[in-house]
Amino acid sequence: MARVPVMQAVVDVLKSEGVDVTFGCPGAAILPLYAAMEDSDIRHLIVRHEEGATHMADGWARTNGNVGVAIGTSGPAGTNMITGLYTAQADSIPILCITGQAVSSKLHQEAFQAVDIVEIAKPVSKWAVQVKEAALAPWIFREAFRIARSGRPGPVLIDLPLDVQKQEIEWDPEIDAPLPVQRIEPHPPRVRRALDMLLDAERPLILAGGGIIGAEASGQLRELAELLGVPVQVTLMGKGSFPEDHELYAGMTGIQTSQRYGNQSFLESDVVLAVGARFGDRHTGALDVYRGERKFVHVDIEPTQIGRVFEPDLGVVSDARLFLEAMLDEARQRAVGKRFDDWVGRVGELKQTLTRPDDYDSVPIKAPRVYREINEIFPPETYFVTAIGLYQIWGGQFQRAHQPRHYQVCGQAGPLGWEIPAAIGVKSAEPDAEVVAVVGDYSFQFLVEELAVAAQYDVPFVVIMLNNEYLGLIRQAESDGFGMNTEVDIHYDENGTDNVALMRAYGCSGCRVFEPGELQSSIEWARKEAVATSRPVLVEVMIEREASTARGTRIDSLIEPEPVPNP
């Protein structure tokens, strides 16, 4: 075999693993990799901050299910990536972070920008490794992709000392291929028991978590639900795995990102089949109320997830898609048909009665009205990204999602600033798709510099900002828990930061909306402007400061109406 630069072999591996774009920032300790990429057909977007690169890789991976790649040099480049690694780990997203490193002989001498990034990254990654021998590099990269995709997907990090990057190895890409990823099949007796428990129930629910989306199992979920006539709820990470306009859709349960009818449907259920869900605390609320007298079947690809939060009545270790296919086969063999019509009717009744208003015409604009416009204007195939704060709660409560991978939210880690780079990643994965980032005024400013990336590479998307210039969720937590109101003011005039001017500074455009009647025309203008300019366009919506509709509510109190502000 021919001898080639080792980084050329690494680039060959990236290409064969399906990587067509990377996000990163070159520096002295990673230049050999960049030199190898120069003549490849892998696109590269140069970022303004390495955390932004990780979130772009994250958005790219959430969109197509492949492993997103972020690249940085040594020292602070790696430490800047830690938040992105944590976000991907928390939400089970497969990304690969590649860092440069000082030469091997200097690592023990506190050389310039030499940091033990492997040890730093280990708690927030599935695997973190430094390549110590050049001949190992392509095999470590192959293993990294396998690990990122296997079991519960997640992030990996590879650290490349500069001297290792400069070497040559024997390599022939024509006889190389990705390592196989084992799919975990369910144990048949547990599949049969799970079906028995569903069929013995009077008011069963299927709970679809993010694992449904990761396993590409939305079709099988719908098929099983329709075959048996069982209502389906979704978690925040599972939003989009089941169409929200379907007769069997039963909403979301939780203390914040939930529907009132979803909570009540859950409270009336007697058996819950949870597939690819991890029972996060914002979903369960008080565990004694959540568990109640109902029985639980917990299906997860990661064995250590089962029993982590509470002991289920039945645990099944399996890939979500393979489990649902096995359930379908078993149900068909038994010739099982629909049998829960009364329960479906009850869920439908709750959906009609336990609702939240969204048709406010008052000024200042109320947040639910913004989501009403979003639901009416954008088609089902639109990709949405959103992050953490009151607007994540509103999104869970009011925004509809109909297709998997089209509603993306950093659910567990909740890093502010995630939306702009994530939207760039989504658009890079689906260049012809319409992409919308729903942001808050505070989160927008965390990684706002990544707008320059979108402007540089002509990456258009719409940004809808809910601006209460108030840090509402932080202020709410302070007042509720501590009776204080400290350091939660970020505005310098009556409207806060001039975000439209900020957009213009990055070569983009935007508008500010004060009246609910201006929402539709402003959003439609932004959609056209994004296409015309190939740049992000902002619609900044000035909403009311007080937002009692978003307050968390215990799952056991949802029978009573929630307080809402006067129109």
TrEMBL record:
Its EC number is 4.1.1.47. Residues 191-327 form the Thiamine pyrophosphate enzyme central domain. InterPro entries: DHS-like_NAD/FAD-binding_dom, THDP-binding, Thiamin_PyroP_enz_cen_dom, Thiamin_PyroP_enz_TPP-bd_dom, TPP_enz, TPP_enzyme_TPP-bd. It comes from Saccharopolyspora griseoalba. Pfam families: TPP_enzyme_C (PF02775), TPP_enzyme_M (PF00205), TPP_enzyme_N (PF02776). Residues 388-541 form the Thiamine pyrophosphate enzyme TPP-binding domain. Transmembrane segments: none annotated. One of its GO terms (molecular function) is tartronate-semialdehyde synthase activity. The keyword Transmembrane does not apply. Belongs to the TPP enzyme family. This is Glyoxylate carboligase. The keyword Transferase does not apply. Residues 6-119 form the Thiamine pyrophosphate enzyme N-terminal TPP-binding domain. The lineage of its organism: Bacteria, Bacillati, Actinomycetota, Actinomycetes, Pseudonocardiales. Keywords: Lyase, Thiamine pyrophosphate.
